[in-house]
Every structure is written in structure tokens, then in C-alpha cells.
Amino acid sequence: MLKIALALLALLSSPTAAGAQATLTFGGEPYVRKHGQMNEKAAIIEFVPAEETLEGWTRLVGFHGFWHNKDTAVEAAQTLARLAAERYPDGAKPRVRSKGAEALVDFVAKAPNSDVLEFNVFKYGRAPDGRGIVAFQFARRFRGLDPEDVRTLCGRWIAEAAGFDLKIASAALKGSARRATTALLARSVVSP
């Protein structure tokens, strides 16, 4: 029993387990993992530039997993488009596109009484193991711009998101879930 506990603790403290998917590059820019949370139904990992925080980011990359979602990628994108249009009626103008089993949705969010605009693009697809939906997100915040100008500026990120391999997001999310499960097992084995 002690050998199992020591092996699990060694695995948890190894650089590979602790640092898996700690950084990534998107659109030629580096991002650092700043947040991760998961349970048996869903998971999220968020990356921002190293010098930024989750509270004050200007660019964000997110991986999302919805493990019990039976929707198609198009249905998931349409749901987000509908929610964005409802929540941000002053200019969200969500657009949904699909290709094969994947779908993209982009929109501009503007909170009332704020000069901050947030561009978002999400790419949805089935998880590679067929269990649930996986999504890639890129978000960029701007101050004082017109929503149409933001859409024009963000065209390149839509193209970059369209080419993003969702297997990368799925592997990171599933790897984080395995590490979380291993950590729980290690605590239960070590605890009397």
C-alpha cells in the first residue's frame, strides 16, 4: 500500500504530470495556463499571456469539455450564438459556420455602460473518444472601438481558430482530468 502511495506521489510531482499543457502558442503568440477546473461533467483550461492575469487579460485561449453533451457541434455553436445574442443585444451579431463535424461561432460582446468590447470565437467538435463536446475558444478585448471594426480586426483569429486541432484541447482536458483523479486517489491512499 505504501509503494502505491509513493508511486502516485512521484507521478504527481513529475514535471510531465504537473506541467502538461502549461503553455501553448496561438496566432504566433505564447500563452500560459492560468486556470483549470474540472469535474465528471465538464472541464475548462484557460491560458493568457504570461504578463497578464485572469482578471485583467486582453487575450485568452480556453479549452472546454462538456462530457455528457449529446449535441452536434453545429447545435452547440447555435446554442452559444443564441445565448450571445440574448445577452448582448447591442451588437453581438453571432455568426455560425460549419465544416464536416465541426462548427465555429464568433460574436462581439459589449457590457452595458462599458467601452470594453470582447471578441470571441469558439470551435466545437465531438470529443475524439465520442464522449461529449470539446471546444476551443479565443477571446480578445478592445477598448473604445466600434463592434464592426473589432470584427474586421479579428478575421485572422477566426481563420486560426478554424484550423485549430481539437485533439489538442481534448488531450489537455482529459490529461487534466486524469491528473485530478490521480490526486484524489493519492490522497485517499495516503490518508489513514
Description:
- The chain is of the alpha+beta class and about 190 residues long.
- It has a single domain, classed as Protein Transport Mog1p, Chain A (3-Layer(aba) Sandwich).
- The chain contains 6 helices and 8 strands.
- The chain has helices at about 1-15, 15-20, 75-85, 145-155, 155-160, 165-190; strands at about 25, 30-40, 40-50, 60-65, 95-100, 100-110, 115-125, 135-145.
- It has an 8-stranded antiparallel sheet, sandwiched between helices.
- A hairpin with a 2-residue loop joins β5 and β6.
- α1 packs antiparallel against α6.
- The N and C termini lie close together (about 10 Å).
- The model is unreliable at about 1-20 and about 180-190 (pLDDT under 50).
What is the topological layout?
Elements: H1 2-13, H2 15-19, E1 23-26, E2 29-38, E3 42-48, E4 59-66, H3 73-87, E5 95-99, E6 102-110, E7 116-126, E8 133-143, H4 147-153, H5 155-162, H6 166-190
Antiparallel strand pairs: 1-2, 2-3, 3-4, 4-8, 5-6, 6-7, 7-8
